[in-house]
Every structure is written in structure tokens, then in C-alpha cells.
Write a structure and sequence with these properties.
Helix content is 33%, strand content 20%. By secondary structure, the protein is of the alpha+beta class. It has a single domain, classed as Chorismate synthase AroC (Chorismate synthase, AroC fold), CATH 3.60.150. The longest helix has 24 residues. The protein starts with a strand and ends with a helix. The structure holds flavin mononucleotide. Flavin mononucleotide binds next to helix 11.
């Protein structure tokens, strides 16, 4: 399976092409659009989320609600393009409007400065339009398709917000409880912590400042043996980390106990193995987060992702004007104060993409029936 995404933040549309899906996968567009609505929700989001109200369309590869086995193309039209067509058109643009929208006070924490130098641009808009996390909308839509493939095999993904700028949800939650996180303001399970996080974000907003946070992701139902220790490129933990690190603003990925394990002794970290009475094996603990030797071991996958604070501050940071070299205050287009709630659903989508790809490499199958039969035969 292969995913390609394309599109600029204020361009006509965002597009994704997924190659390699088997035939007869039932695709529920409403579920995909539900995920897109979650991506636009959560306390601390900026004005753009009110303009867009994203809806995905399926352009190819699905007929009568089922995949055909051909590439599936998804599209989200940018409603805001109506306000930007004069300076974002593929044809000749209005030079006055282009000048007005030009960004040269390059923003720290963004691709702006390195991007203009690398791609020989004088306007950082030619960089930020693609670097923007607006791209995650189409990854969430594609992730919706991947989730439906995994779900047909009995693999489900969930998660919650664990931390926002120092406010922590320290609870331990069963996978089936995690749906609640999609109903709270910031995405935490513990409502007291969630309310504190809202207060923290509001205080930061007043100061013209921003927040990041930590999301925990969990995967239930993944059988053992996905990924491989045979080559570095096949390791499941490495592939998940690569996928998650590709999300804008992600600066850390932990598998299982991660950094905490490094600070503990072996006795309190490794999961001892026991035989059950049906000829199988189990572990009484899951500090490894469901992956050993680069392979799923049959336990729940437990991953954490760390998001840095949003880099566009309303009280702009010090920078230089790239056009003149003079000292300047960084440009501050309308922006989120905290997007951690959105990160949870984006990270679910990325985990789904990686897992569906890894699973399909092992199972193959031209049809969903073949894929399901092969999955069900595995120990
Ligand atoms: C869901 C989401 C929303 C974001 N919203 C904003 C935003 O409104 N303003 C901003 O400056 N950065 C925002 N970011 C972060 C930037 O996209 C990101 O920091 C930037 O592209 C630089 O990439 P890097 O942090 O991975 O180096 C957001 C990130 C995500 C995942």
C-alpha cells in the first residue's frame, strides 16, 4: 500500500491517492468525515477551523460503497480558496494581492527561512502553504480508509491527551474507555485535568503565547509477528516512529515506557513471559508497549507523541525580514493556541496508515476476503 498526499493550505484542494487496497473493502465516508470534524475541534483552535468545515469526497477507486482494487483518490476542497484564488491560482495571479499576502518576516519554529533559501523563493508563502499542518486534513481522510481496512481484520486504534503544557492526566484507562476522550474539551479522559488544561490554554492565549502536549495512542487486536527484526527498515517501532515524526510539530515518539524505561533497572522494565493453559503465551505487564525486536508481540500497542507549542505567537517572536535583512517581529497569521485535540485523531490516522501497510505486506490478498482469511489463520 502506498499513500501520496498533495495540496497547498490555501490552494484549491487537498488530495490523497492510496494504492494497494484490496477489493471489497467497505468504505464509510461518514466515518471519515466524522474524523475530519474531530480534527477541527478541541479547545484552543484558531479562526480557520470555523471557515473550513472539511468534508472529504471520493473521486476514484470506490463503487457502490466498496473498493475496486484500483487506486482510491480522496479530495477535500479548501473552502477558503474562494478568498485566496487571486493569489493562489495556478494561472497568472494578481500581483498587488500577491504582494499583500507576501510573507518575509519569517517565523521561528517554521519551515519559512530554511525553505526560502533551499527553494530559492523570495516569498515564504511558497514554503508555508505546503509546510502547514493543513496537510494533516487529507492524511486524516486517508487514515479513515486505512482504519476501515484494519477494523475489518479486528484491529482498532484509540487514544487520549495525556498532557498539555505541564497539566497531566495521570489516569490508567482500558482501551474501550478511550472513546470518552473525543467528548472532552482538550481530549483528556480525566475531566478535572481537562478543565485545568482549558484554564492553562486560556491563560497562555491572554499572554499571546501557545501550548503543545502529549498524546497516548493505543492499538487493540493486532496479532503478533507484524514488522520484522530481519532488516532495520522492516522494524515496526522504527516505521511507526517515522510516520509519527512526519506529523507537523511532533518532536518525540515513545514506545511503551520509552524514556522512563531508560531511567529504571531491567527488573522493573521487561515483561516476563508466561504460558497459558491453551498452549499460548502471555505477559502480565506491557511496558514494552506491544513491540519487541521490531515485531508486534500480540499485546496492545502503546505509543506516545510529543507536540511542541504552536510556533506562531500572537505576540510575535524576534526574527529578520528576509527581504531587507532588518530586525522584525515574526508574522502572525490567525493561528491555533493549542491543537493537541486534533493531534490525537491525526496520530490515529498515521498509525493506521503504517499498520495497514505493514499488515498488507504480510497478508497480501487481492480481496478483503483473502486478507481476512489469512489474518484469522495467524496465531
Ligand atoms: C493540528 C496541527 C495544527 C497546527 N496549527 C498551527 C497553527 O495554527 N499555527 C502554527 O504556527 N503552527 C501550527 N502547527 C505547527 C506547525 O505546522 C509546525 O510546527 C511547522 O509546520 C513546523 O514543523 P515542525 O514543527 O515539525 O518543525 C500545527 C500543527 C498541527 C499538527
Amino acid at each position: 500500500m502506498r499513500l501520496t498526499t498533495a495540496g497547498e493550505s490555501h490552494g484549491k484542494a487537498l488530495v490523497a491517492i492510496i494504492e494497494g487496497l484490496p477489493s471489497h473493502l467497505k468504505v464509510d465516508l461518514e466515518k471519515i468525515n466524522e474524523d475530519l470534524a474531530y480534527r477541527q475541534s478541541g479547545f484552543g483552535r484558531g479562526a480557520r477551523q470555523k471557515i473550513e468545515k472539511d468534508k472529504a469526497e471520493i473521486l476514484t477507486g470506490v463503487r457502490n460503497g466498496e473498493t475496486l482494487g484500483s487506486p482510491v483518490t480522496l479530495c477535500i476542497y479548501n473552502k477558503d480558496y474562494a478568498n485566496w484564488s487571486a493569489c493562489m491560482s495556478d494561472g497568472a495571479c494578481d500581483t498587488d494581492i500577491m504582494e499583500k499576502k507576501k510573507l518575509t518576516k519569517v517565523r521561528p519554529g517554521h519551515a519559512d527561512l530554511t525553505g526560502v533559501i533551499k527553494f530559492a523563493q523570495s516569498d515564504a508563502r511558497n514554503i508555508l502553504e505546503r509546510a502547514s499542518a493543513r496537510e494533516t486534513a487529507i492524511r486524516v481522510a486517508a487514515g479513515g480508509v486505512y482504519k476501515q481496512y484494519l477494523s475489518a481484520l479486528g484491529v482498532e486504534i484509540g487514544g487520549f491527551v495525556k498532557e498539555v503544557c505541564g497539566v497531566k492526566d495521570t489516569g490508567v484507562y482500558a482501551f474501550d474507555e478511550l472513546k470518552k476522550a473525543k467528548t472532552t474539551q482538550v481530549g483528556m479522559m480525566d475531566e478535572t485535568a481537562d478543565a485545568l488544561a482549558v484554564e492553562r490554554i486560556s491563560a497562555l492565549k491572554k499572554e499571546g503565547d501557545t501550548a503543545g502536549g502529549v498524546v497516548e495512542l493505543r492499538v487493540k487486536g493486532l496479532k503478533s509477528g507484524f514488522g520484522s527484526m530481519m532488516t532495520y527498515a522492516e522494524k515496526l517501532d522504527a516505521r511507526l516512529a517515522q510516520g509519527l515524526m512526519s506529523i507537523q510539530a511532533i518532536k518525540g515518539v515513545e514506545i511503551g515506557d520509552g524514556f522512563r524505561a531508560a531511567a529504571s533497572s531491567g527488573k522493573s522494565v521487561h515483561d516476563e513471559i508466561f504460558a497459558d493453559n491453551k498452549g499460548g503465551f502471555y505477559r502480565a505487564t506491557n511496558r514494552a508497549g506491544g513491540i519487541e525486536g521490531g515485531m508486534s508481540n500480540g499485546e496492545e500497542l502503546v505509543l506516545k507523541v510529543a507536540m511542541k507549542p504552536i510556533p506562531t505567537l500572537m505576540k510575535g517572536l524576534k526574527t529578520v525580514d528576509y527581504a531587507t535583512g532588518a530586525e522584525a517581529t515574526a508574522a502572525s497569521e490567525r493561528s491555533d493556541v493549542c491543537a493537541i485535540f486534533a493531534l490525537e485523531i491525526i496520530a490515529e490516522a498515521v498509525v493506521a496508515q503504517v499498520l495497514a501497510t505493514v499488515v498488507s505486506e504480510r497478508l497480501g490478498g487481492d480481496t478483503m476476503q483473502e486478507a481476512c482469511e489469512r489474518y484469522n489463520r495467524l496465531p
